[in-house]
Amino acid sequence: MGNENKHGLPRDIPAAVKREVRQRCGFGCVVCGLAIIQYEHIDPEFYEAKEHDPEKITVLCGACHDKVTRGVWSKEKVIRHNEKPKCVSAGYAADFFDIGETLPIVVFGGSEWADTPTIIEAFGETILGLSLDDDSGLVQISGVFHNDEDQEIFRIDKNEWKGSAGNFDIDIVGSTLTVRKEKRKIALKIKVEPPNLFIVEEIDMVFRGAQISGVRNKGFKVVAPDGSTINVHTLKAESCVAGVNIEENGVSLGYKCKKLRF
Q1: Confidence band (pLDDT; 50, 70, 90) for 1?
Q2: Which of 17, 70, 173, 238 qualifies as a FRET site for 228, CA 20 to 30 Å off?
Q3: 64 phi and psi, to 5 degrees?
Q4: What is the pLDDT of residues 95-116, one digit of tens each?
């Protein structure tokens, strides 16, 4: 398969065009809504295309794309779904994290939490936490993430994640997922190295008046509604009941930890 078609158009689609296609399609496969996607020229097909026109490109998951490539599905079917993308109708794109059978190490900002079921809790609600499924024996991760205007942008429910189709952008490269509020403004960046490592690379959110921000290897900051603040550059914790707990009038760190090292 060549890098250019007969018109000299390179196979690689420019990043800005890809983003425009993702935005129009709601960040997921136009047929099934899964968020791990591939780009497909639909009208004309790539071999006849003279430009990368975002209005004539769509996104499909690997399975749906394969059905088109093998001739199981027609281009007409894809065109119909492209006109009414699944994620736009549903309001979100979705997929699943692979977590495994033991509690993973969770990296958050400059902190590492091992064997800790609740990483962040705010006002009695778990922002990021882990549990064990009794039937499968697998660990399940759940969480809710807002942007800096306290609007929900991303949610994880027992390993299934959903990213709002109303976001400016959701981009997945390899095992790294990035949610952007604006072109150069990251609201959330997650990297998963299955089955034992879940990394919040970057976060900038407000949850019911509490501010939570952090960048991997640079630390994290939490500000409670009353202004109480914690700044952590590096931290390693093990076997805690909870990592960060936010209340209206304060923030606590490392509740009942077996080991806690700054």
Answers
A1: low
A2: 238
A3: -70, -40
A4: 999 998 999 999 999 999 999 9
Give residue for tokens 């990592």: 243
* pTM score: 0.93
Considering the domain architecture, whether residues 123 and 200 belong to the same structural domain is answered as yes
Same domain, 30 and 107: no
Instruction: Return the bridge partners of 128, or none.
Output: 120, 143
β pairing state of 92-96 and 160-164:
antiparallel
Task: Report the interhelical angle of 62-69 vs 75-83 (nearest 10°).
Answer: 140
Q: How far is Cα 108 from Cα 128, in angstroms, rounded to an integer?
A: 10
∠ CA 164-166-171 to the nearest 5 degrees?
Answer: 65
Q: Does residue 146 sit in the same domain as residue 40? A: no
Q: Is a pLDDT exceeding 90 seen at residue 46? A: no
| Domain limit, last residue, from 77, 95, 113 | 95
Residue environment code for 231-249, b if the CB has 16+ CB neighbours within 10 A, otherwise e: ebeebebbebebbbbbbee
What's the confidence (pLDDT) of residue 91?
98
What domain range is 125 assigned to? 97-261
Residue pair 152/144 in contact by the 8 Å Cβ criterion:
yes
Main-chain phi, psi angles of 32, to 5 degrees: -110, -15
> Do 142 and 221 reside in the same domain of the chain?
yes
Q: What are the phi and psi torsion angles at 108 (to 5°)?
A: -135, 110
Distances (CA, A) of 57 to 27, 45, 92, 164, 254: 13, 9, 20, 21, 48
User: Which structure tokens are listed for 188?
Assistant: 């959330």
Same domain flag for 255 and 154: yes
Segment 31-43, tens digit of pLDDT: 999 999 999 999 8
